[in-house]
Amino acid sequence: MKASPSYKTKIDINQLLEHPKACLVHDILSNTGTSVLVPSRIPIGKLLEGLDKPQKLIDTLDRMGIRNIEIEIPQEIDDEELMARLKELDPSVTVIDNEVTKNAQAVIETLFNQASLEEKFNIPVDVINDISNGISSEIMKTSQIVLSMVRGDLDSYTKDHALNVSMLAGYIAKKLADAQKTTEAMIDKAVQAGLLFDIGKTAIPKDILYKEGRLDSQETVIMRNHVNESVSICKASGIRDTDVLEGIATHHERYDGSGYDRGLVGTQIPLLGRILAVADTFDAMTSSRVYKSAVSSKISFNFIMSANETEFDPDICKIFIAGMGIYPPGTIVQLSDGRVATVAAMNTGNLLQPKVALKEGDSQRVIDLAAEKLFIRSAMDSD
Hints:
By secondary structure, the protein is α+β, with helices and mostly antiparallel strands. It has helices spanning 44-49, 55-63, 79-89, 98-117, 125-141, 157-178, 185-196, 206-209, 217-224, 226-236, 242-249, 271-285, 297-306, 314-324, 369-372, and strands at residues 6-12, 23-24, 28-29, 36-38, 68-74, 332-335, 340-347, 350-360, 363-368, 376-379. It has a five-stranded antiparallel beta sheet. Strands 1-5-2 form a three-stranded antiparallel beta sheet, with no helix packed on it. It has a two-stranded antiparallel ribbon with strand order 3-4.
């Protein structure tokens, strides 16, 4: 799963010591508001290390008239244990083979590093074909694509983003092929376009690419040119597939004509461009970058669905729902019995009752909500 999610909740201050890994959502200021008495974003267990008696924290809050406090609780998910529990419950759950993912990461790392060093760089097309074929073959067997997506850090974002987008784009293409809205040949094209669509960012100055603040108008023009740079690098390397090249060239076009560079509208945008727009947005929103924090899968999913028919192709949005579920893996939910769980995998044909992971001490258990006759009361992800 891409990230360890968290959720916010209000508790009685006397329950604070029961959550050593949680953080306060807001700083607790002095009565004058000039100093921070209890800082936020630091695990409560760490705060207590500086006190001779943990109860002092509770007493301080009580003296200030604070009876309830908002905290953010991490839902730490062990991916390997999660997959083991899922397999026990449902052997049909499949993800992309870890070795295929590692090989793809190594290739992408080499591509982006060499492209950054060389003024002219020829992508080894045969290597890209091998990697994309391997990912495509795995996608044909994969039932849960979000569980296959890799966790990245700030330094590896662009490269990990390329891998995640390739897998997600290929999965969307697979679902479109299943619905007879495209051919299976488009799956491999989607994977290849995803691997290469951002290669042009290697030509963007680092101070612009990693700028923390908003880009000015001139910087925006330079940044947007990464699309043309990607196409140029691919063409110079001998990539001739028109679908792949057009998909890369149009991945920032938007269904309502608000995108760039051509301002295309609706189905004027090639199918791969429309697929990449959704895949790129979903992974970008759920990834941390120097200028933004990651949001949850659920919040990203909600944004894409709210932009149905404006920014994104409605047919692809429908396919996206069918392939991801209304509650994508990683979404923190409150169940009808009051317990808090993390969505582990969707149930095909039953989008409202997925399989969820429950924390039980230091281990986790996976249950099928349909089998347990439970339902989701609400999504609790932090925004």
